[in-house]
Amino acid sequence: MSGRYACIILDFDGTFTDVEREAVPFLARYREGLAALIGRDLDDAWGRAVAAVESDLDAHGFEFDGRIVAPSHADPYILATSVARLVLAEDGEGHDVDAALEQLFRDSYGCADTAFRPDADQVVQAVLEMDAPVYVVTNSNTEHVKKKIRALSGDALSRLRDVRGDAKKFHLVDPGTADPRFDAVPEALEVEGLSRPLFLRRGRYFETLRDIWTETGTEPAQTLVCGDIFELDLALPAQLGATVHLVTRPNTPGWERRAVERAGGTWSERLTGLLEHL
């Protein structure tokens, strides 16, 4: 089926999945691992850290080189990381905090459940009917995401052009090979309603996007990108000229919706809202 776009790029966790449900066993394992790391019961320290994050959401988040690169409350995975960072700052002497957080996440992610948004299968089938090549680009482990896609739909994985995991959408670095398109990306956006900068120059994510455009012979202006976190999934593609669609979460802040609209994109509460724009 022909459509508006020559290339379609989809995030997966949180976009096609019910991230609140699937994260329940992840969080149990994550807290066990963190308690083992600090060598004592976690309840009091965890509660204090949660309260601190919730008291000033913009002051906390997923960090890269000391800069916040994703909202603290974007999903349970990022919230857990934001909370654990505070716990380790208080009680993690002798640990490399960034390395410890990365290892905690990797050790716990395999425990996450598989739970989809109710319209996930309908949407993935409709998207795969389009003539455009469809890619999944995710920060999550490639094989874990492929396993979820198989559970969602028996033939979806074989019909996707590719699944690109470990995309490092949070890495604020230059790409390995210079590119004038990336050079033109400003360092950050000031977004109404967000009290910190939103950093844009995410070179590893750019490399993945560039590889896809090279493989498909397409350009950003011919591309639709769909995700559930504006800062991670959509801000850079929008800056490069792609069309973006945000699938909101129950706690998506108003500034994300406004940022998408300012970038010329669209948003919907249900995943099926994406289909209106194909």
Give structural notes.
This protein is an alpha/beta fold and 278 residues long. It has 2 domains: 7-18 and 116-277, Rossmann fold (3-Layer(aba) Sandwich), CATH 3.40.50.1000; 20-109, no CATH class. Helices cover 45% and strands 13% of the residues. The protein has helices at residues 19-38, 43-55, 76-91, 97-109, 120-128, 142-152, 156-159, 180-183, 203-216, 230-240, 254-262, and strands at 7-10, 61-64, 67-71, 134-137, 162-164, 188-189, 198-199, 223-227, 243-247, 266-268. α1 runs parallel beside α3 (76-91). The chain is globular. The termini are close together. The mean pLDDT is 94.
At a glance:
Helices cover 45% and strands 13% of the residues. It is an alpha/beta fold and 278 residues long.
The largest sheet has its strands arranged as 5-4-1-8-9-10
Query: Structural class, from helix and strand content?
Result: alpha/beta
User: What's the β-strand tally?
Assistant: 10
**What is the overall pLDDT average?**
94
CATH top level of the largest domain? Alpha Beta
Counted up, domains total 2
Distance between the termini: 10 Å
Topology:
Layout: E1 7-10, H1 19-38, H2 43-55, E2 61-64, E3 67-71, H3 76-91, H4 97-109, H5 120-128, E4 134-137, H6 142-152, H7 156-159, E5 162-164, H8 180-183, E6 188-189, E7 198-199, H9 203-216, E8 223-227, H10 230-240, E9 243-247, H11 254-262, E10 266-268
Short key terms for the protein model shown above:
Rossmann fold, 45% helix, single chain, 2 domains, two-stranded antiparallel sheet, six-stranded parallel β-sheet, globular, 278 residues, alpha/beta
